[in-house]
Specification:
The longest helix has about 30 residues. Strands 3-4-5-7-6 form a 5-stranded mixed beta sheet. The protein contains 28 helices and 7 strands. The protein is mostly helical and about 725 residues long. The protein is globular.
Length: about 725
């Protein structure tokens, strides 16, 4: 859960415009250099307050102590302390807000905006533990607290965003001439804070404010229920396998399936209901009936007509979101959501997606024809279905490129890939990763490892990096990055506590963990987020936030280093022989780089387009299952593919609001990624060119949200981004100008 005071409340940011050649650019003026500072601010501070006696032993509220600037006490924190800690944290934060509004001095940047940045230090620590219990170590006991507290936390948030006296002070600073004398990053902070209030109900009348807050509380409950329902289906549904049902599966997969069964006190083997288990099974299993079963089990999460069915929840979420933005004067939810994104409007986001969609589904038709030919030649007597796509795509891959995905996995060891990421971070960011002594930093599970991140030249400490790589019960599926503490300097330099989380299937004791090329890309992707955290040079907490259709850019870009010669030659080595990946296999991977892009692009775009349709349509009386089917039919969605995230388990948009009406952002960011990658590809030093790498860190990573993302990209590239690079990357036709 992100920090309410400095992120969730301040959902708004300045409206950002980026020209892709699809629409007009956001201005032709010369970009300005970002101005960052590291001094400590001297301004309004809050007095130290001793904890009440009843809370002095509360483990959740305890200050972080120990090395590295203090670290979370993961090993000793107690879940039973969470609720009273939250209650105190909210009370303390509201008291701090009251101190700001009671200040008799005229509102200034220091006594209002910076003071607001200082609020909620107790909650900052509490939300770190909340996030771990919600994502990495969920339990029925936590979910009970989560369900109870979610609407209460929403109401607390509304008390701040709808605090008229606080908003008046923020507005006074925003409207004052004094803003012109502030540094550029401080001016941006003022605008972000003001927009965050204005976009979240601060300007409404009292009746509408009350309804706005009521809607937010209900949405908080619905988002939590949606997420827990998906987790319940991931934990509750598995597909058991017997010895005679293992045809086509690799030894490493079989061992992992046995280990997964053992972890659940089951005999034999199981396919768990997560993508990391489902995808390789559908790719290699020769048991077509089981492939269909596994496929249906996975894509039916949240859609089983039982107590964890999410369709009614989706309908209510859409209705409430639409009503809420209507109070603010917007025509639909997407219009409100994109007003502070790079896309600016739903129409521009749709324009980008529709520019790519025809080429994507045309490529699917070609891919299906190739697969059907293979099936016919084998006498399979089938018509390709969604549960056949990965299986026959792998056969086509082998036939066209002589590329065996399982052969590639032999060179993709989790440990070596971690070393490869450290090497890349060292070359680009000058970071060095050193394992901390075991036991010196508390962790929340034995699988979690921690590294000290320092500057290679100076040795200065930058932060810690935590890695939680393996799937287990109580851990949500997928891969993600988060931070437990962000870099700031306004109250003295703070180091970064960053974390990456994956769901790789843990191998048998003593066996290396081998992963697919796609999973290796995702591993690098999430490391990109961590490097974004670690490279921050911003002064204020809010500036560590981001613009949703920009924040995926940095992580998507880092994926490109996986296939560089330096990484392949030194880290992609055979798990048995230690020999580097041979040149002919590398060439096959390169030749097949655009293989199956029809599938990858279409399954993603289908989800993004359905997301946008949901949030630009009148949701009155909506039936999500029917709406999904009808929307896909209208898009001419190929029968052989399903959305990457079907609506009932589309957590990106229904378990919260971070990606709602914003799933398109991955493609928007990918336009930036493809264009930026060409700068490295064309540089004298290639992907390790020092000059380009310095610009990458200076303009695209370190400033975070301290400068307009469109301006940041222009500083790096010298112009706005161009969609043609994306089309070239995916092997799609590039329209003539």
């Amino acid at each position: 859960m992100r920090k309410i005071l400095k992120t969730n409340i301040l959902l708004g940011a300045s409206a950002l415009v980026l020209g892709f050649g699809l629409a007009a650019c956001g201005g032709d003026s010369a970009p300005k250099e970002p101005a960052m500072r590291t001094q400590t601010e001297a301004s309004f501070t809050f007095p130290d307050v001793a904890l009440p006696d009843a809370l002095k032993s509360n483990t959740v509220l305890a200050d972080w102590t120990g090395p590295y600037g203090g670290v979370p006490a993961f090993e000793t924190v107690k879940l039973e302390d969470l609720k009273p800690a939250l209650e105190y944290g909210m009370e303390r934060s509201l008291a701090e807000i009251d101190m700001i509004t009671a200040n008799p001095d005229a509102p200034t940047f220091e006594n209002t905006i910076v003071a607001l940045e200082r609020t909620g230090s107790d909650l900052d620590r509490i939300y770190t533990y909340w996030g771990i219990w919600a994502s990495n170590m969920s339990s029925p006991e936590f979910r009970a607290v989560q369900g109870e507290m979610a609407p209460i936390l929403s109401a607390f948030s509304s008390k701040i965003t709808q605090n008229e006296a606080l908003f008046e002070r923020v507005k006074a600073v925003h409207d004052s001439d004094a803003v012109d004398s502030l540094r550029p990053d401080q001016q941006r902070l003022v605008k972000l804070v003001y927009d965050g209030f204005a976009r979240n109900g601060a300007t409404l009348n009292e009746t509408d404010k009350a309804r706005y807050a009521e809607i937010n509380q209900r949405l908080a409950t619905l988002h939590t229920t949606f997420s827990n329902n998906v987790l319940a289906d991931e934990e509750g549904y598995v597909t058991p396998l017997t010895q005679d049902q293992l045809g086509g599966l690799s030894d490493s997969y079989i061992k992992a399936a046995a280990a997964a069964a053992k972890a659940r006190d089951m005999d034999g083997y199981i396919v768990t209901n997560t993508r990391s288990s489902m995808s390789p099974f559908l790719t290699y299993s020769t048991e077509r009936d089981l492939r269909e079963k596994v496929w249906r089990t996975y894509y039916s999460r949240g859609d089983n007509g039982d107590a964890t069915d999410n369709n009614a929840i989706i309908a209510e979420i859409l209705q409430l979101r639409d009503e809420r933005v209507g109070l603010l004067g917007y025509d639909n939810y997407a219009q409100w959501r994109l007003a502070d994104r790079m896309a600016g409007t739903p129409e521009r986001a749709i324009e980008l997606m529709e520019a790519v969609w025809p080429a994507a589904i045309a490529r699917v038709a070609e891919e299906v024809a190739d697969m059907q030919a293979v099936a016919d030649a084998e006498g399979a007597d089938i018509t390709i279905q969604p549960w056949d796509y990965r299986f026959y795509a792998e056969k086509v891959r082998r036939d066209k490129y002589d590329l065996d995905s399982d052969e590639v996995k032999q060179y993709l060891q989790l440990g070596k890939l971690t070393e490869a990421m450290f090497f890349t971070a060292g070359e680009l960011f000058n970071f060095e990763f050193t394992p901390v002594p075991e036991g010196s930093v508390p962790v929340f599970h034995p699988d979690v490892k921690v590294w000290d991140v320092t500057d290679k030249d100076s040795g200065d400490h930058i932060g810690l990096w935590y890695l939680d790589p393996f799937a287990r019960q109580g851990k949500r599926s997928g891969a993600w990055a988060t931070s437990y503490r962000s870099h700031t300097t306004f109250d003295g330099p703070k180091n970064v506590l960053s974390s990456n989380n994956s769901n790789f299937v843990k191998g048998a004791e003593g066996e290396p963990v081998l992963i697919s090329w796609d999973d290796a890309n995702t591993f690098f992707h999430e490391m990109g987020h961590a490097l974004h955290f670690l490279s921050s040079n911003v002064a204020y907490p809010t500036l560590n936030g981001g613009v949703r259709d920009y924040t995926e850019f940095q992580s998507q870009l880092l994926e490109r280093w996986l296939s560089t010669d330096e990484v392949v030659n030194n880290y992609l080595v055979h798990y048995k022989t230690g020999e580097p990946m041979p040149a002919d296999l590398r060439q096959k991977i390169k030749d097949a780089a655009t293989f199956n892009q029809g599938f990858a692009t279409t399954e993603y775009l289908a989800s993004a387009l359905v997301d946008m349709r949901y949030h630009t349509t009148d949701p009155t009386g909506i039936d999500p299952d029917a709406f999904e089917r009808e929307t896909l039919a209208d898009l001419n969605m190929p029968d052989e593919i399903v959305m990457r995230h079907r609506s009932p388990h589309f957590g990106h948009i229904f378990s919260g609001e971070g990606y709602s009406a914003g799933y398109y952002g991955y493609m928007w960011a990918d336009v930036l990624t493809s264009d930026a990658a060409e700068s490295f590809a064309q540089a004298p030093g290639g992907f390790y060119d020092k000059e380009v790498a310095d610009k990458l860190v200076k303009y695209l990573f370190a400033p975070r949200n301290a400068i307009d993302p469109a301006e940041a990209f222009r500083l790096f590239k010298g112009r706005d981004a161009d969609i043609s690079a994306l089309l070239r990357d995916r092997g799609f036709p590039v329209p003539e100008e």
